[in-house]
Amino acid sequence: MDTIGFVCDPDHPAFGPVARRLTARGFEVEFFRPDGRVAPADVARLSALASGVVHPTAFAALRYADGEGIPTWNDWTAVAVLSARLVTLSALDAVGCRVPDVRFDGPHEGYVPAYRHAWEGPTTLDDTAPFYVEAVGNDGVDYRYYAVDDGRETHMRALSVRTAVADDDPLLERADVNVSLAAGVRELLDVLDARALAVDFTRDDEAFYAVRATPTPTFTRAGMDRRVADSVASLTTLGA
Hints:
- This protein is α+β, with helices and mostly antiparallel strands.
- The protein is about 30% helix and about 25% strand.
- It has 2 domains: about 5-75 and about 225-235, Rossmann fold; about 85-215, 2-Layer Sandwich (D-amino Acid Aminotransferase, Chain A, domain 1), CATH 3.30.470.20.
- It has helices at about 15-25, 40-45, 55-70, 75-80, 85-95, 180-190, 225-235; strands spanning about 5, 30, 50, 100-105, 110-115, 130-135, 140-150, 155-160, 170-175, 195-205, 210-215.
- The strands form 3 sheets. Strands 9-8-7-10-11 form a 5-stranded antiparallel sheet. A 3-stranded parallel sheet has the order 2-1-3, sandwiched between helices.
- The longest helix has 13 residues, at about 55-70.
C-alpha cells in the first residue's frame, strides 16, 4: 500500500482535509512533526513526501527524499527558492511579473523592512532589516493566486484578500482570474517543476506587482481540496 508522508501537524489547513481524502482512497498517511527531525529511515519507506511548512526540518527531509528518488510534492529546490525573499522576487521577475524595488542602504520613505527567509517571520518597523522592499499597492486588496498541477493539468484559483477591512467585509472572496497574472504563476510553477504554489499580487495606479510566493500554500477558502489530493496522489503508483 502506498504511504504518503506530510511534514506538518495533522490539523494543517490544507493537508488535514487532503489526508482524509487520501485515506478514503486507500492510501496510508503519516504526519511528521515540523519542529522535530524526520529520520531518513522514516522517509525511505514512503511512496511520496509533501511538506506543509517552510522550515529547515522540512528541507532536510525533502533533500533526503530527492536524493533517494522518492517523489516529493514540491522538491527541495522549489521550497528553498521560494523560502528566500530576494530569490523569490528575482524568480518572479524572471517569469515576467512586475516586482517591487529592493534597497540595501537602510530605511527610506516608501520602503518597508524585510526578512531573508520565510521561517524568520516578518520584521517590524522598529527592526534593523537586512534589506528594504518598496511598499506598493494602494487599494487595500491583495490578490492571491493558487496553482495546482494534478499530473494532468494545472488548475488556477484567485482570491481577493482585503488588507483594509471594513465592518462586515469578508476578508477572502473568490476573484476572477487575470490571464496575464495567471500566466506568470503558471510559468513559475513550470520553471520550478513544482506541483503547487501561491503568489500574492497587489495593485497600484499603474500595474499589478507580485510581492511574495510560497511553496506551502494553505488554500484557505480556495475550495481546492480535491485538486490538491489529486496532485499528491498522482506522485504514487496508486494515484498515477
